[in-house]
Amino acid sequence: MFSKILIANRGEIACRVIKTARKMGIKTVAVFSDADKDALHVAMADEAVHIGPPAAAQSYLLIDKIIAACKQTGAEAVHPGYGFLSERAAFPAALAAEGIVFIGPNPGAIEAMGDKIESKKAAAAAKVSTVPGFLGVIENAEHAAKIADEIGYPVMIKASAGGGGKGMRVANSREEVKEGFERATSEARSSFGDDRVFVEKFIVQPRHIEIQVLGDKHGNVIYLGERECSIQRRNQKVIEEAPSPLLDEATRRKMGEQAVALAKAVNYDSAGTVEFVAGQDKSFYFLEMNTRLQVEHPVTELVTGIDLVEQMIRVAAGETLAIRQVDVKLNGWAVESRIYAEDPYRNFLPSIGRLSRYRPPAEGEQDGVTVRNDTGVFEGGEISLYYDPMIAKLVTHAPTRLQAIDAQVDALDAFALDGIQHNIPFLSALMGHERWRSGKLSTGFIAEEYPDGFHGAPLEPAIARKLAAVAAVIDNVGNARKRKISQQLAGRPVVFEHRRVVRIGAATLTCEVDRAAGGYIVTFLDETGAPLGTHELRSGWHPGEPVWQGAYDDELIHVQVRPRPNGVTLGHRGVSVGAVVYTEREAVLAALMPEKQASGSGKHLVCPMPGLVVSIAVSEGQEVKAGETLAVVEAMKMENVLRAERDATVKKVLAKPGDSLAVDAVILEFA
User: Fold this and answer.
1) Catalytic-labelled residue, pool 182, 187, 288, 634
2) What is the CATH number of the domain that holds 301?
3) Annotated catalytic residue 288
4) pLDDT digits (tens, 9 = 90+) for 306-319
């Protein structure tokens, strides 16, 4: 077994590998760019080596720098994580030439399966069902459109060397194919250094289901069940689960056996994933093989009890798999949410900055429910413009699917994160969505259920009452604290005025708040003052804490609490709403105050997130139509097309390709 390994990666996956290596008694070496000098993976590793500037092409993607770091530290093996060099056949070959072991598959397997075009050819040769498509060299956008016409719409344009949703576009017409081809090749070139793409038929209402395989260097290959990854946005996975609510045991076995046969055909000898696109009728077609550890591997680990990173290390050291196919049992259900630095209220645009608060829910197992948080950040750390926007992967495991989902939403509500925008409200709302909970999934789920974007979960009456009760208690706790500051009202009796009017969003609720043993009793009243219902709340919450955790009647709940002028903003189950608590007299006066109207202007195109201008598609004096492309801005390795919201004339162009812009920087002015 190795005594020291180097992790050629960063962020949460580097931290994840370090944890297993530590458990195995193996020392670790981290590598880092200028942007990551204070990163968590650097602090966690036994040693760390600086490898260059922030741009991945000048640091994490340079094989010679990784090899030099191995020689400098005496690392005997390298774990590549995912992304970066993990699927470059040249990387393990270069390591082997220096006598360094690659903790991953052999170069031949990567070459055969890592390239999306070649893997489809190999799958077809192995008689694995594949999606109709064109796997040859596509010369230009016109050629791509001709191919799409022959295949039939819709089609998927996909980077050959791609992954993680980069370089992927769905097109429903010739025009969309041409634009998608340009965007996909550009993203592929910048993300992978390879601009080849292929075109294939896009299956309507498809589901994304993948099989985890594990092989050793002695010809043994097994499958560890499946993961469903159908909840996607821009072809980027958002929610994953294991097992899939679609599959039965017979289909699972058929998919698993095909995945194993394909892996054996290329002498696969590590952890890998064979991905399928599945129809609602349980038909399935080979999509691609990822010759590395997947982002979503924790759900498989929780339902099988198998540490995939440990198995990869043992296989790389030459050990024979100690697990047989008959030993693999699926236990319970696991759900994973990817927490991203992005603004769900602004079409999920990337967000960067410092994490002024980062308090994830407690990890561990209690009452049959496990909570796990894989992360690479810490409170006070920065989310950089240079890398993937993932902050953490929150995973819950329970005996049943609905129990795992309920545990997930509780954990999301308990996750306190400030300083940047993030997608926790969206994830929390999604967990309560009836279609998701019923398992009626497809890769178009988010686009179909949120066609106009995400604007927060609706404030249902039951949630409004729950949050109003919490707001009333928070107000009472705050007032009690104020009375004690500097001995205000010292020696004078305190009159407890217990009736309150709570403005929660657009709703107004009247209640009475009374202290009780260990908590409060909140009674809601109708317009005549008659009681509508009584609730008991108990919590140890103190002013300043970001999460109100306590009992609402017999239900344990978590509510996000953020101060705002004259009140608080509360977050729960995807609802984010302002709450103000008044005395009755204050409520009367507040009703007389005019509401401030938000001002807006359609005279400018502003940069919706910090990013790099890739192109400007218009010129001064040009007339543009609604929906027409104005500019392309790249942020966190994704290209974002900015379109005209209405017909207009371009008055002035204030940015140029190559400019680095801050959020809300003006790109164009309209007449």
Assistant:
1) 288
2) 3.30.470.20
3) yes
4) 999 999 999 999 99
